[in-house]
Design goal:
Elements (H helix, E strand, L loop, with lengths): L1 H28 L1 H38 L5 H49 L4 H17 L3 H42 L3 H42 L4 H14 L6 H5 L1 H9 L10 H25 L7 H15 L1 H28 L1
Helix pairs in contact: 2-3, 2-5, 2-6, 2-12, 3-7, 3-9, 5-6, 6-7, 6-10, 6-12, 9-10, 11-12
């Protein structure tokens, strides 16, 4: 029996190795075509991922209106919810978004130059660091593409942004209007013996995605407010605290590392305005300690309370999923990484339940 298990494991490993080798040679033979296909998939996945994220935020509101009012038909409720959502986005942009945008422009036009000067004065006076800096700049200049390719890339980016802006509302409307119908239609295309399993998996996956997206949105809002309060407590101005707070809150969409990446800008900025901060030149230590404390609060109290244990994934698995799906689909991959991994985990648990039941 033990021998059969070893042979089975070797068989699966051989199949996996063969698949990897095949993918490698397919990529070498059809790299241009694969790149085009990847770009086409990403062009659809990005707006779909954003629309899916928003649809899971708005679905509870659609259900609430339908349950507590006699409003019909369903598409009218969806349109009303979309109008309310756009109105809230407009109010946020008017009262808070405008301040954040204004501070971002001021920061990158003025303060960022001060940060560069500070880095140059502190680090680049060291001969070793200066040599490494010069080498890096030379490498970047040598490997940089001609200007025509940069223009093409800018044009492609603009087309992608415009397509995303147009497609997100379309995808969002149909996801809110016909998500259940679309899912049932997909299930019916499967053989009858698999339809029951697909339906059950779909329900479980839907619960996982609903809890993740709703929980992540609430977590981002709460953490943005807490980060804003944190910066104000160290002596940053209200407007600058709001900018840095919501920047870190938005980057919190990448668990574990997002907030630590985002804290770099405020720390560098703190070195240029030490006279106005409560801890002076040691403010960066306070910011690091406070950031770690807020991350611990979020990871151990806030996130488990909001999301429960349905999307409880090991940090290493989370980081791996971000790297893999981010490299595969870009920003959309980052947004969908944890939901996809959560679905895979849910499917594995369901498969184990079926296996245990059959024994």
């Amino acid at each position: 029996m033990e021998r059969d298990k070893r042979i089975k494991i070797l068989h699966y490993l051989g199949m996996a190795a063969l698949a990897v080798i095949s993918l490698y040679y397919l990529n070498l033979l059809f790299s241009d075509q694969i790149q085009l296909l990847r770009g086409a998939i990403t062009a659809i996945v990005l707006p779909f991922g954003i629309a899916l994220f928003i649809s899971y935020l708005l679905s509870p509101l659609v259900n609430l209106i339908e349950q507590h009012t006699a409003m019909k038909p369903h598409w009218l409720v969806v349109i009303i919810v979309l109008v309310l959502f756009l109105a809230l986005i407009g109010l946020f942009g008017y009262f808070i978004g405008d301040v954040i945008y204004e501070q971002a422009v001021i920061f990158f036009n003025n303060d960022f130059e001060n940060i560069q000067l500070w880095v140059q004065n502190v680090f680049l006076e060291n001969e070793t660091v200066q040599n490494a800096y010069d080498y890096a700049v030379a490498e970047i200049k040598e490997s940089s593409a001609p200007i025509i390719f940069n223009i093409i890339n800018v044009f492609k980016s603009l087309v992608t942004i415009i397509a995303t802006i147009v497609l997100v509302p379309v995808f969002l409307f149909f996801l809110l209007q016909d998500k259940t119908t679309i899912f049932k239609g997909i299930v019916k295309t499967l053989p009858k013996k698999y339809q029951g399993h697909a339906s059950e998996l779909g329900k479980r996956a839907n619960d996982v995605i609903q809890k993740y997206f709703s929980g992540r949105f609430i977590s981002i809002l709460i953490m943005s407010v807490l980060f804003t309060i944190m910066f104000m407590s160290f002596g940053f101005s209200f407007r600058r605290s709001l900018f840095f707070g919501f920047l870190l809150g938005f980057l919190d969409i990448i668990p574990y590392i997002g907030a630590f990446i985002g804290i770099l800008l405020p720390i560098l900025y703190s070195f240029t305005v030490t006279d106005t901060l409560f801890l002076g030149r040691y403010t960066f230590l306070g910011l690091l300690a406070a950031n770690m404390g807020l991350q611990a609060f979020q990871g151990n109290i806030l996130q488990p309370y909001i999301m429960g244990k349905e999307v409880n994934l090991h940090p290493l698995l989370v980081l791996t999923s971000f790297v893999f799906f981010g490299a595969l689909f870009g920003i959309a991959g980052v947004i969908l990484a944890i939901p996809i991994t959560g679905i895979i985990k849910t499917s594995a648990i369901y498969y184990k339940e079926l296996k245990d039941t059959s024994q």
